[in-house]
């Protein structure tokens, strides 16, 4: 804290940022610490004045509301009075023998303000004045930062003049570390100095002086992390886990070098089995010992670089080195590993978990620093022996994102080439080392596209001269020696550690721009107020564009890739779909609490929020005359009418607005309750609730008051904290795309012009459109316009001819919930025995409820009749304009997130948002109460619902999906099921069909397969056939195989196939059998043995079969059975299920969950995905799916190497000496109960021959 009068004016300095742009910043100034009480008084007065001015300027902030000059006068009196500075120790003669050192007073003063900020961050106090009083009255703070260090300095006092005139310890104005006098206690000699002869205290063995090292910010002692107290030798304790062997230059060397002569010492503990044989962290007791030391706070800083030998991507580059040991799908190691490779993979997993545990234990301490290093996760391999495969990485562990979300932690990627190497070596730090990042660092978690390819944040390195991939002819491995960090990186890490704990002066960082001017509150680290967000101009980034009518600022969320706001604790929900694991999405964005389980959601729980929720519940129960809102919930499910009277909604709005004002809103109550012009929403009220909740995307709602960009001339924003990045678009996007000025309407409009005119006139009266003549239109928009074609359902086609949508580039990817989210909810609550109830809602004219910017209205025009002179211009969101769904989804998502915060932990609910449709699922009694409150809050924010479409109950239809909460099953609605059955039947009896009709029906079948997994295998042949005839503009004959498949699907839907239980396989399943197949010399065999009870073949049932033409003609469709070996391997799995499966154990639901072992890796993916277009394996997959469904089984296939599956291979080789003859199961394949295979054999062979011929005729490779 310093006045401008005390320092030189800041100089302007050029600075290069990490993007390569040159900017100009102010340099820094430094001033000495206060040298006497008057100097401290002056600094505290400056601080008080600054806070009072901030309170007057930012009236919406509550941090400094109660700060007055009187607050700091009392603080000065406490510090400089008899409680601190005036404290004296006297002997029996009443002589002063000890007083507090002046540096200790300054250190204690800093500790008081630091404690005040900590209390504010933890939600204890909102105002700094109250927190400051708590700080100087806190006994622990005084004992730790004043009383204890004072007692330690009493024995080392050398008296000199006290600032008050009292005798006190000799020290400089700055104070600091203890040092020996240069004369080593000897007398100064005659005529030397003021003191002659012997010292009054006798000959001292070494007189001690106290001097303090001051950093550039004027902070003393433990400026950031803190290492001790004034007057005590500071020792920085660093623990380096997995330090490796001794090296020429290391972090330890630079730490010792930087500490030399700087007034503090460094103690580095380096642990590695290469250095100490006892440091084998693969042993549990060794890990526990060091974890307990870290948790006890024995180390100021912890570095961890766990071995990455089994995680490195270099193994996947080629086959010139060790082969991979683990992958993204097998993060703990491939299940087929054996011997030393298996032990190595297991040890790598253990050490990775230990490293994450150590980092977490260190990160929970606010004053501690920590760093973990590993190679960057670069996603799928693009070339080499395994293209498309995704290697494993420690950063894929959910612990990574969990720890990265902890306070102060960051995940940063960089190239080691930036620190002086000639190779790139992409690397990632999980780190807490101050607030500033190195220019080479790119913040944010690794990002990938749908195929697993790396998309950022780290760009490709262009300056490196050599690669670390081993090539043929290389004498050794190029990665040898690169495990050691380059010297520049070691030096940077050492500087950051010392800067974090000692201050920048301790590290003597000479780089320009590293130091900053003294802050108003010198706490060392920047203080974050999580409960209140900064004003809109401070906390949001913006892109500025010229609009012709001035400058428009497009407000967007924080530009950082890594979300600062996490709506829950730990990792979000993960959902399982066939062959894929993905994130859970509820439609309200990444910042929605609904993405976490109810007990892991993060809510505001301060007294103000608790009081607000309690008051709203009291208001609702009083108006509805329903104590726990249960009756109201039942009524909402059956009565298609508005459940809330206007006076109830108004009182709830009044209470929320009143609360916002009390919490420091800059808007008055009347302003908060004023709906936006031409819009139904209370945007200011919604924005304030989100802001006070800490939501990252509240500022754009204020811009929505005047209008949002359509993305045509004003670009759409990027909001990484709420949505993923959109990386691909269906249209050929071009910001300068110039289409035709006008497009004629579709013929469907010509027959209903009167209806369209009437509809548009109503829209004009409602303020949603403007009606003008063609001359007025041309004069107003001057060519910056487009008149789009209309379709009957009043669809504004902004793509055809006018190419308006081609200019709109939506940068945010909005994900909506579907079957996988519903399956997760069903499985989650079923496993807990919780009863669910659901209510559905629909927003009226959802996409037309927000305004577009007036500068882009000209591109939203249409005309009912080209012969008419009237032009209708849309002012609001328009169906058919690419950005309409984006802005509606963002506004409704904001309403949903605000609703979650108002519900709080006492009212658990699952809110699913799909465009303008919403489903609110309530668990048990509290959840049904939450359903009512959810609707009430959404209405209070101004969302207009179609009450005639409201419905609910224990069985509901939503977005084409039917959910039966009584039996926890999900499927398709009766209407959709009836349509599909009718369509399948129609195609089945037809001789020919249009390809586009087949494509449309296939799309609906594909949507159905998201909920009905048994249907997926049957879609493979249909996909293959439709793709072969897709380019034909005529009717085509329907093959008999397609008719048979459609008939089977229809019969399954007619029976009990409309609903399905959620998948139950959540981890490793029990191994039930091992199988194999063999094809040789024009013959083929399959065999399997049951491993449910034992892995001893002598104790297990077994069988073998020769595959012959009489029961498996498809195996010889390509002449040599060896060409269909994958289908034969899958046939072995199928036969094992049919032979052994009837006796396998079921759970209490009658389910059998297990896995089979095969040595065909491709089949594991086919079974997991449940679909393939390849013949003849698709036939076996269909039969397998039906056999599992009819038997109530869920089955996976696990791959093992051929040498690990030797017993099954012996069966196909007709070697039976390992098996007991008594346990052989005789199998007659002709009498086995096949379901779909016999009917598909001949017809499918003909079908695939036609597909191959048609593709060849179209130029495809057959």
From TrEMBL:
InterPro entries: Hepadnavirus_pol/RT. Residues 161-227, 565-595 are annotated as: Disordered. Residues 189-198 have a biased composition (Basic residues). This is Uncharacterized protein.
């Amino acid at each position: 804290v310093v006045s401008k009068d005390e320092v030189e004016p800041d100089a302007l300095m050029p600075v290069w940022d990490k993007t390569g742009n040159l900017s100009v910043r102010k340099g820094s100034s430094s001033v000495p610490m206060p040298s006497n009480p008057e100097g401290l008084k002056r600094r505290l007065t400056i601080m008080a004045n600054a806070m009072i001015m901030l309170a007057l300027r930012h009236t919406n902030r509550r941090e400094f509301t109660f700060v007055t000059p009187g607050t700091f006068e009392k603080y000065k009196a406490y510090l400089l009075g008899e409680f601190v500075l005036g404290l004296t120790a006297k002997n029996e003669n009443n002589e002063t023998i000890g007083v507090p050192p002046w540096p200790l007073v300054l250190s204690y003063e800093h500790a008081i303000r630091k404690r005040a900020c900590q209390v504010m961050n933890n939600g204890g106090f909102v105002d700094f004045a109250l927190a400051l009083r708590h700080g100087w009255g806190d006994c622990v703070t005084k004992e730790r930062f004043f009383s204890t260090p004072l007692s330690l300095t009493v024995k080392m006092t050398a008296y000199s003049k006290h600032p008050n005139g009292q005798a006190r310890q000799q020290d400089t104005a700055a104070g600091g570390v203890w040092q020996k006098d240069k004369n080593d206690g000897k007398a100064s000699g005659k005529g030397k100095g003021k003191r002659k002869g012997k010292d009054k205290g006798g000959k001292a063995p070494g007189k001690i002086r106290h001097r303090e090292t001051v950093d550039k910010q004027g902070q003393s002692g433990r400026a950031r992390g803190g290492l001790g107290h004034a007057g005590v030798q500071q020792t920085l304790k660093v623990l380096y886990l997995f330090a490796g062997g001794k090296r020429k230059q290391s972090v330890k060397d630079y730490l010792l070098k930087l500490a030399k002569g700087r007034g503090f010492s460094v103690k580095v503990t380096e642990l590695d089995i290469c250095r100490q044989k006892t440091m084998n962290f693969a042993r549990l007791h060794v890990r526990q010992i060091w974890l307990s030391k870290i948790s006890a706070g024995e180390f100021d800083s912890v570095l961890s670089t766990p071995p990455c030998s089994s995680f490195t991507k270099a193994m996947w580059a080629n086959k010139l080195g060790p082969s991979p040991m683990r992958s993204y799908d097998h993060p703990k190691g491939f299940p087929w590993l054996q011997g030393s490779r298996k032990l190595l993979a297991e040890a790598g997993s253990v050490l990775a978990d230990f490293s994450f545990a150590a980092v977490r234990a260190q990160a929970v301490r606010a004053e501690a620093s920590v760093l973990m290093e590993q190679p960057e996760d670069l996603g799928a391999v693009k070339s080499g022996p395994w293209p498309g495969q995704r290697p494993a990485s420690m950063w894929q562990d959910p612990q990574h994102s969990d720890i990265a979300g902890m306070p102060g932690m960051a995940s940063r990627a960089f190239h080691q080439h930036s620190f002086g190497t000639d190779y790139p070596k992409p690397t990632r730090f999980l780190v807490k080392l101050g607030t500033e990042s190195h220019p080479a660092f790119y913040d944010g978690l690794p990002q990938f596209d749908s195929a697993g390819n790396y998309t950022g944040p780290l760009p490709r390195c262009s300056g490196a001269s050599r690669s670390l991939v081993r090539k043929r002819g290389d004498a050794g491995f190029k990665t040898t020696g690169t495990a050691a960090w380059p010297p520049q990186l070691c030096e940077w890490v050492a500087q950051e550690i010392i800067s974090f704990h000692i201050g920048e002066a301790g590290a003597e960082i000479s780089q320009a721009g590293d130091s900053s001017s003294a802050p108003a509150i010198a706490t060392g680290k920047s203080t974050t107020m999580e409960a209140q967000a900064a004003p809109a101009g401070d906390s949001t980034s913006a892109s500025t564009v010229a609009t012709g009518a001035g400058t428009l600022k497009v407000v967007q969320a924080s530009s950082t890739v890594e979300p600062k706001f996490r709506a829950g604790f730990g990792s979000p929900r993960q959902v399982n779909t066939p062959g894929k694991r993905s994130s859970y999405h509820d439609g309200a964005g990444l910042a929605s609490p609904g993405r976490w389980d109810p007990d892991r959601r993060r809510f505001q729980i301060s007294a103000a929020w608790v009081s607000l929720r309690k008051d709203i519940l009291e208001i609702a129960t009083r108006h509805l005359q329903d104590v726990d809102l249960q009756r109201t919930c039942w009524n909402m499910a059956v009565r298609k009418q508005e459940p809330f009277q206007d006076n109830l909604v108004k009182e709830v709005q009044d209470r929320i607005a009143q609360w916002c004002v009390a919490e420091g809103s800059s808007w008055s109550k009347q302003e908060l309750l004023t709906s936006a012009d031409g819009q139904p929403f209370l945007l200011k009220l919604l924005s304030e609730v989100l802001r006070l909740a800490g939501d990252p995307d509240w500022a754009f709602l204020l811009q929505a008051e005047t209008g949002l960009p359509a993305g045509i001339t004003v670009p759409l924003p990027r909001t990484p904290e709420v949505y993923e990045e959109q990386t691909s678009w269906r249209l050929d996007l071009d910001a300068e795309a110039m289409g035709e000025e006008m497009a004629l309407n579709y013929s469907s409009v010509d027959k209903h012009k009167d209806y369209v005119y009437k509809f548009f006139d109503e829209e004009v009266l409602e303020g949603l459109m403007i009606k003008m003549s063609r001359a007025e239109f041309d004069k107003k928009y001057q060519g910056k316009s487009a008149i789009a074609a209309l379709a009957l359902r009043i669809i504004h086609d902004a793509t055809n001819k006018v190419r308006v949508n081609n200019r709109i580039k939506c940068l945010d990817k909005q994900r909506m919930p579907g079957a996988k989210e519903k399956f997760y909810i069903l499985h989650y609550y079923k496993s807990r025995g919780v009863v669910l109830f659901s209510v559905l809602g629909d927003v009226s004219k959802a996409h037309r409820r927000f305004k577009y910017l007036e500068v882009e209205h000209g591109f939203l025009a249409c005309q009912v009749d080209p012969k008419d002179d009237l032009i209708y211009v849309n002012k609001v969101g328009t169906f058919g304009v690419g950005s309409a769904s984006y802005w509606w989804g963002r506004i409704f998502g904001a309403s949903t997130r605000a609703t979650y915060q108002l519900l709080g932990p006492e009212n658990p609910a699952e809110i699913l948002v799909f465009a303008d449709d919403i489903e609110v699922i309530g668990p048990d009694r509290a959840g049904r109460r939450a359903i009512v409150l959810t609707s009430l809050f959404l209405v209070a924010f101004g969302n207009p619902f179609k009450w005639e479409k409201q419905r609910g109950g224990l069985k509901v239809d939503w977005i084409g999906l039917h959910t039966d909460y009584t039996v926890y099953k999900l499927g398709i609605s009766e209407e959709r099921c009836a349509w599909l059955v009718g369509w399948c039947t129609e195609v089945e009896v037809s001789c020919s069909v249009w390809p586009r009709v087949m494509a449309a029906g296939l799309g609906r079948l594909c949507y159905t397969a998201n909920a009905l997994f048994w249907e997926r295998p049957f879609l493979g042949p249909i996909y293959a056939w439709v793709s072969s005839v897709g380019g034909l503009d005529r009717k085509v004959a329907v093959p008999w195989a397609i008719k048979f498949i459609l008939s089977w699907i229809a019969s399954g839907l007619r029976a009990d196939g409309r609903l399905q239980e959620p998948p139950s396989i959540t981890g490793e399943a029990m191994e039930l059998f091992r199988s194999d197949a063999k094809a040789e010399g024009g013959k083929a065999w399959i065999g399997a043995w049951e491993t449910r009870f034992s892995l001893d073949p002598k104790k297990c049932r077994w069988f073998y079969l020769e595959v012959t033409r009489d029961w498996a003609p498809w195996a010889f469709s390509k002449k040599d059975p060896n060409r269909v070996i994958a289908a034969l391997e899958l046939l072995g799995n199928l036969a094992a299920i049919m032979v052994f499966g009837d006796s396998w154990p079921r759970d209490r639901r009658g389910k059998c969950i297990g896995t089979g072992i095969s040595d065909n890796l491709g089949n594991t993916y086919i079974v997991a995905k449940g679909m393939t277009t390849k013949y003849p394996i698709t036939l076996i997959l269909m039969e397998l799916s039906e056999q599992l469904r009819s038997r109530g089984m869920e089955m996976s296939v696990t791959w093992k190497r051929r040498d690990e599956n030797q017993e099954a291979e012996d069966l196909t080789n007709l070697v039976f000496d390992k098996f007991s003859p008594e346990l052989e199961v005789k199998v007659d394949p002709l009498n086995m109960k096949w379901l779909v295979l016999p009917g598909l054999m001949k017809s499918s062979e003909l079908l695939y021959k036609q597909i191959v011929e048609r593709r060849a005729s179209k130029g495809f490779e057959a």
